[in-house]
Amino acid sequence: MSPRLRRFALATAVVVGIAAAGALAVMAGLFERSVVEASADAPLTPQQMKGLVERGRYLARAADCAACHTAPGGAPLAGGLAFPMPFGTLYATNITPDAETGIGRWTRAQFQRALRDGVAPRGHLYPAMPYVSYRQLTANDTDAIYAYVMSRPPIRQENRANSFPFDYVRPTLAFWNLLNLPARGFVPDTTRPNDWNRGKYLVDALGHCGECHTPRDLTLGMIAQRYLQGTRIENVDAPDVTPTGLLRMGFDAAALARYLPAGTGPQGVMNFSMYDVVHNSTRWLTKDDAAAMATYLTALQPMVSASLAAAPASTLPPAGRQTYLQLCSACHGVDGEGIAHVAPPMRTNASLRVSSPRNLLVVIADGLPERALPDGERYQAMPAFGHVLDDQQIADLATWLRGNWGGTSAAVRQVEVQAVRPKFP
Ligand code: HEC
Ligand code: HEC
Ligand code: HEC
Which end of the chain, N or C, is surrounded by fewer C-beta atoms within 10 Å? Predict the structure, then answer.
């Protein structure tokens, strides 16, 4: 080997060696910062556990644990819900206190680390479990959730095997955490009032609203600079819920404080996965907590309201108006006023005001199921029109609705309709 080649080989070996040592160090957790205090190693007494159960029940609802840890029709918290990922399907696990198949043997510290560090006894958790958000939970609240979960009936149900050998990949999640897991937990902003801080805690830590409303980067980490600005989730859009986005949809603090627990109001009705958020979580919030959430989310809302003047009728497709009067007005009203307890109003509806027409098009094409809402409210089913109207008719209808009541003059295009209904050729 020539001296030059030898030097090159040596240099390469050194670089590879350093990289390998670095990778091992990351995977061994040398760079990981736990936010769990050492005091969590001391178990809680049975009396302490008992005293925390009711608060834990409330917090577990605010954190919506059941949404993911309960399979459709399955036993509460016994796991089994599927999470389709780009390379396979991951299943949420049994978190009932069954000693064999659930988390019955878990210590207080293990539970704290799973929720706030994303590390379980079996290794790193996938961020489908929203530990990036739960990292901000306080130690006390996490203890209360622990006490509540441990007070539930143990359910014997084996965890479903993941479709991909996710377990082999677990150690590499340490890299992901290096990029995407904040170093610290919740830090109150002492320059802000208490209800603002309480609201931020409810939104970021418990409610993990950003997990669906904040756009993600290529590593699938939430982009901090685009906090709550809205993103595609499954087939629909979770809208912009920054103060500006909320104002555009017609929410000030008072309106939002009513809408979050009710799931319906002049702004329409919560659909898709947001319906489940209301059903399992926000409906259980106390008045004060719902108000704090709304205060935080609308803080610094621009004072001038986003203009919602109707686009001039001459610029809107007359065919859209015709379709509305023929097919929609019987339920939603000739003037878009809706019918109380039957069909939501259109003229003040948030789904016509958001920047993307996608959710509106999905509702028109697929309809909505009959649903129960909090406080005994109930809506009938909304019929599907995907097989009745062609792409251009739906586009015209959507353009007219958005122009007339949504303050948006941009025309909805046929391709946007096609994108939401490949099943109707
Ligand atoms: C958005 C969905 C989602 C929510 C909400 C959620 N989880 Fe999870 N959780 C998961 C998934 C998926 C896994 C499995 C992750 C994996 O296999 O790496 C998991 C794993 C866990 C584990 C680890 C179990 C084990 O056997 O290693 C615990 C404990 C847990 N979750 C508790 C909770 C609690 C308590 C809450 C509410 C405060 C909660 N989760 C809310 C999706 C969720
Ligand atoms: C599981 C994903 C998910 C989570 C978590 C989530 N959202 Fe949503 N959100 C959505 C989707 C999807 C929509 C669009 C619903 C629609 O078009 O009706 C939405 C819509 C909304 C709207 C607009 C109202 C409407 O009728 O469309 C508000 C306000 C909102 N979310 C607030 C929140 C808050 C506050 C939280 C945290 C407590 C939260 N969301 C958590 C998915 C989510
Ligand atoms: C038979 C009565 C009926 C007819 C006809 C009808 N709708 Fe609906 N619509 C409903 C009901 C009821 C809901 C609420 C369903 C739910 O939340 O489960 C709804 C919901 C909606 C929503 C979602 C509103 C929101 O707040 O998110 C939109 C948009 C909508 N309809 C548009 C239309 C359009 C456009 C037409 C005509 C093509 C139409 N509807 C025809 C009854 C109807």
Answer: C
Per-residue model confidence (pLDDT) at position 406: 94
Could you tell me the CATH number of the domain that includes residue 234? 1.10.760
What whole-number distance in Å separates Cα of residue 406 and Cα of residue 425?
A: 29
How far is the centre of ligand 1, averaged over its atoms, from the C-alpha of 97 (Å)? 14
The 3-class SS string of 45-73 reads CHHHHHHHHHHHHHHHHHCCHHHHHECCC
- Which residue from 133, 134, 274, 346 has its CB within 8 A of the most atoms of ligand 2, so it is best to mutate? 274
**CA–CA dist 91, 163 (Å, integer):** 9
Residue 232's SS3 state is strand
Burial class for 415, CB neighbours closer than 10 Å (0-12, 13-18, 19+)? exposed
Both 289 and 389 in one domain: the answer is no
| Coil, strand or helix at 264 | strand
Minimum-distance ligand 3 atom for the alpha carbon of 373? 17
Averaged pLDDT for residues 83-94: 91
pLDDT of residue 425: 44
pTM above 0.85, yes or no: yes
Nearest atom, ligand 1, residue 211 CA: 1
List pLDDT tens digits, range 104-162.
999 999 999 999 999 999 999 999 999 999 999 999 999 999 999 999 999 999 999 88
Q: Considering only CA atoms, which of 260, 280, 281, 284 is closest in space to residue 270?
A: 260
Does residue 225 form part of some domain? Answer: yes
Do 223 and 133 lie in one domain? The reply is no
How many angstroms does the Cα of residue 27 sit away from the middle of ligand 1? 21
176 and 42, same structural domain? yes
Note whether 27 and 46 are same-domain residues.
Answer: no
Say how far apart CA 327 and CA 406 lie, in whole Å.
Answer: 19
Same domain, 353 and 318: yes
> Within 13 Å, how many C-alpha atoms sit on residue 416's CB side?
21
**Weakest mean pLDDT among 56-60, 249-253, 256-260, 406-410:** 406-410
Atom of ligand 3 nearest to the CA of 270: 27
